[in-house]
Amino acid sequence: MKIALGSDHAGYPLKEEIKKYLDLKDIPFTDFGTFKIDSSDYPEFAYKVGNAIAAEECDCGILICGTGIGMSITANKIKGIRAAVANTEEGAKLSRLHNDANILCLGSRVVEPEQALKILDVWINTSFEGGRHQKRTNLITQLTGL
Ligand code: RB5
Questions:
Q1: Mean pLDDT, to the nearest integer, of 17-45?
Q2: Considering the entire predicted model, what is its pTM?
Q3: CATH fold of 3-144, please?
């Protein structure tokens, strides 16, 4: 599993924490920026991460901004992307089980770093349930073309 990582300035410190965590767990990742704390625009990083997954260069992604919302709005406009804002462990789990989310969006202004790592752990270790949920994710593609 290779993870595409991205954040804006608001998510930058949490992204750096997540990198340490992924290193510790031996999970490979590519960091698509931002690489500094200066003000930046979240769509740029959501677009890069989303496209890396759409192009199958990475298997899934983590995007962090202040709320996770701007990242998810942007990433979900890319074909094949199912980006979920999950600021609770339950939301993270269900976004994998039911929605086959391929990007986890976190809000650094909403969750503490320790909680974010717990959310990430659940998200990484939960698989899609398929079955009736597969029919529904297929329907997303059929209805929207995305
Ligand atoms: C940046 O101030 C903030 O708007 C951004 O990080 C994000 O929360 C947008 O959804």
A1: 98
A2: 0.98
A3: Ribose 5-phosphate Isomerase B; Chain: A, (3.40.1400)
Angle subtended by helix axes 12-24 and 113-124, to nearest 10? 50
22-51 CB burial, b ≥16 within 10 A, e <16: beeeeeebebbbbeeeeebebbebbbbbbb
Pick the atom of ligand 1 nearest to 109's CA.
Answer: 8
The protein residue with its alpha carbon nearest to ligand 1, atom 3, reads 66
* pLDDT tens-digit map of 58-87: 999 999 999 999 999 999 999 999 999 999
Q: Is 129 helix (H, G, I), strand (E, B) or coil?
A: coil
Protein residue closest via CA to atom 7 of ligand 1 = 66
- The answer to whether 4 and 57 have CB atoms below 8 angstroms apart is yes
